[in-house]
Amino acid sequence: MQLKFKDYKAILDIVEFIKNYNKKNIKIMEICGTHTMSIAKSGIRSILPNNIKLISGPGCPVCVTAITRIDEILSLVQNKDIIITTFGDMLKVPGSVDRMSLSTLKSMGAKVEIVYSAMDALTIAEKNPDYEVVFLGIGFETTAPGTAIAIKEAKAKNIKNFSVFSLHKFVEPALRALLNSDDFDVDAFICPGHVSAILGIKGFEFLAKEYKKPSVITGFEPEDIIVAIYKIIMQFEKNFAIIENEYLRVVTYEGNKIAQDVMNEVFEPVDDIWRGIGLIPQSGMGIRDCYSEYDTVKKFNIKLDYQEKTTACKCGEVIKGMMEPNECPLFAKICSPENPVGPCMVSSEGACAAYYKYLRV
Ligand code: SF4
């Protein structure tokens, strides 16, 4: 059954069905920070019966960035010849020492600029030829093509004072790492609409084909998510596992080939560390040798550490679906959006921030 978008009569029928569904216990993981926020904001959890559970996965790019990498960035920004450019969410993410962040270093005089895209960072480089401008490349397959275009543009214009610290990551290796771990306890997935727009349905087929997990790609309106939950329940009821696309208005089977091509031209898979998960082989996007002059790591000879650090923050457990944000001992006591201990409370897509804003009692 394919529902028409915003067919409210059908949506209300589905809500009734879900509310009264009591046959099977189903844990559903959403793997997109925008879904996390939409679920919290719309109160979808309040209509779920006890046997249906929604948990957040590694879908917030800032939240999965390793503390080790944050520390490396904080060291870099102390170079007086460097302007760090970044999305606003990264500003308050603390490193491992004294909750030091880009924001605190900026207040002490470090050059840190908020940008809305990698191209904005490139413009800053053009306007500041006496400085090295470093863009922190954050995000999954959704934002990586934009970074790749900026790198290509820098090369085409022969701009020498621009580089990218690539923290970009591929979604699939992380999901495989979780699915292959013994303590992972999730039955089904709501797949990310944005990443699916780039990778297409085929990018998430492995969830059902190889791991037998019912999965639905969907959009970000509450009704999109409700339909996805319904579709997942129906797969359990009919005893099959497939990937379904409920985001027909955006997602195709093949995805965005142009975006995939530019991303693959500039980036290649490299080993990388993820917060709370550790090293995942071939999960990071490294800048290919043909663009190495735009690779911050090579330009400034940074020796990347592949050992993740531990702190009191439980973001790792949260993004693995092992802990609800409000089960963290620091939640809303020591850790809040004004005074965050970890990135899940900083990011506008973080699970802890979503709980704090909409589900705190
Ligand atoms: Fe980390 Fe704060 Fe979330 Fe606890 S509440 S997991 S300390 S971000």
From TrEMBL:
This is Hydrogenase expression/formation protein HypD. GO terms for biological process: protein maturation. Belongs to the HypD family. Keywords: Iron, Metal-binding. It comes from Caloramator fervidus. GO terms for molecular function: 4 iron, 4 sulfur cluster binding; carbon monoxide binding; iron ion binding. It comes from the Bacteria.
